[in-house]
Specification:
By secondary structure, the protein is an alpha/beta fold. The protein is built from 12 helices and 10 strands. A hairpin with a 2-residue loop joins strand 9 and strand 10. This is Lysophospholipase L1-like esterase. Keywords: Membrane, Transmembrane, Transmembrane helix. Pfam families: Lipase_GDSL_2.
């Protein structure tokens, strides 16, 4: 089954309240399950202790004339900034400072993220956030890693994320979601746990993207954004626990998110003068499940709602715009290690050309159509054993 179909199915089950419990042993069998349990115990020994409390980054950033822009941050310890040494080093603070500099207006940051949070905890965070900031200009959500490590049923996790996005949109806020990071990029993980973590992370990220776009938000793939850099300079990019990003790691994630946050605030003037997608960069319009799968394979990719011929939906569901607003360049490793299990996955059988208005790109003519094909096995991923770890982010 292609990842695009899996993402759409998970999102559909989320919409209808489907999903009970975590995935079982399934096709891996007792022997495979025992091996994964051993690998998980090894990983818990290798991952160091948590780096203490996240810094309090609430406050006013930048200066200038005008009413401060209001930024609300929700999610897990990545959103909270666990691993940062000072408040100004968190993702929220970095983005607030950047937006303030670019817009010429101060930014008021309110962070209600909770270390260890799963998607089910977003309901309470939204309530607290909107109580503190009645009408945020933009809300940034970073969530998903704990749903994978603690075997949360994906449709349940996605349903709570979608409800959070809808509630924030109803408040008048623009919403940007950084989807589940690729946990297969965490260095202490060994095979076969690494491959399983990668697959679960990417499947959840794709389903999150579908749900976010359906709810009217913008999704940005985090994926293995830190992987190559971690291999080159692990002591620089990750904190001492080898699990949470360091200040340098947070800066890299913030760089991928800030262009989309800026676009959501209309700092580029796109609402009055939309910019067509660049075909040669692989940008375009696709059914949302296909766009989500393409984004998962390319960290830093934005997927946002769009229309084709005045219609928001086509035969294969919601139309979505895929944009590469930022293309982070990894620091080259002096001793690059091949990752045979790391491949781009897109269900090319579901990709359809779009009858778009002039100037709207639908696909990249220079793109190898086989490059994004889904090479996962045909077995149902929900019958695979999930990743289990005590590490929370």
């Amino acid at each position: 089954m292609g990842r695009a179909r899996r993402a759409r199915r998970i999102a559909q089950r989320a919409a209808y309240g489907g999903g009970v419990g975590a995935a079982g042993i399934g096709a891996l069998g007792l022997l495979g399950w025992g091996l994964l349990k051993v690998e998980a115990r090894i990983t818990r020994r290798l991952v160091g202790p948590s780096t203490g409390d996240a810094p309090d980054d609430d406050g006013l950033y930048g200066s200038g004339a005008g009413t401060p822009l209001r930024l609300l941050v929700l999610g897990d310890s990545t959103a909270a900034g666990l691993g940062a040494e000072h408040p100004h080093q968190t993702i929220g603070a970095t983005i607030a400072s950047g937006v303030a500099a670019f817009s010429g207006r101060p930014v008021e940051l309110t962070n209600v993220a909770v270390s260890g949070a799963e998607s089910t905890g977003l309901d309470e965070q939204v309530e607290r956030g909107l109580a503190a900031v009645t009408a945020p200009d933009v809300a940034l959500v970073l969530i998903g890693a704990n749903d994978v490590t603690h075997r949360i049923e994906r449709s349940v996790a996605v349903r709570h994320l979608e409800m959070a996005v809808r509630r924030l949109r109803e408040s008048g806020s623009e919403v940007v979601v950084g989807t589940c990071p690729d946990l297969g990029a965490i260095e202490p993980l060994q095979q076969p746990l690494r491959s399983l973590a990668r697959r679960w992370s990417r499947d959840l990220a794709a389903a999150q993207t579908v749900a976010v776009v359906e709810a009217g938000g913008r999704a940005v793939s985090i994926g293995d954004l830190l992987s190559a850099v971690f291999s080159a300079e692990p002591k620089v990019m990750f904190s001492s626990d080898r699990f949470h990003p360091s200040p340098a790691g947070y800066a890299r994630v913030a760089a991928a998110l800030m262009p989309t946050v800026s676009a959501a605030l209309d700092l580029f003037g796109e609402r009055s003068a939309p910019t067509p997608p660049n075909v040669r960069r692989g940008e375009g319009v696709d059914p949302v499940a296909v766009a989500a799968t393409r984004a998962v394979a390319n960290p830093g990719t934005e997927v946002a709602p769009t229309e084709v011929g005045g219609q928001s939906r086509g035969p294969r569901g919601r139309w979505a715009m895929l944009l590469h607003r930022v293309r982070p360049v990894a620091v080259p490793s002096s001793d690059p290690r091949p990752r045979p299990d790391d491949h781009d996955e897109t269900a090319t059988d579901e990709r359809g050309s779009v009858d778009a208005a002039p100037g709207t790109a639908t696909s990249d003519p220079d793109r190898d159509p086989n490059r994004d094909s889904d090479r996962d096995s045909d077995r149902d991923p929900e019958r695979d054993s999930s990743v289990t770890s005590d590490a929370r982010v």
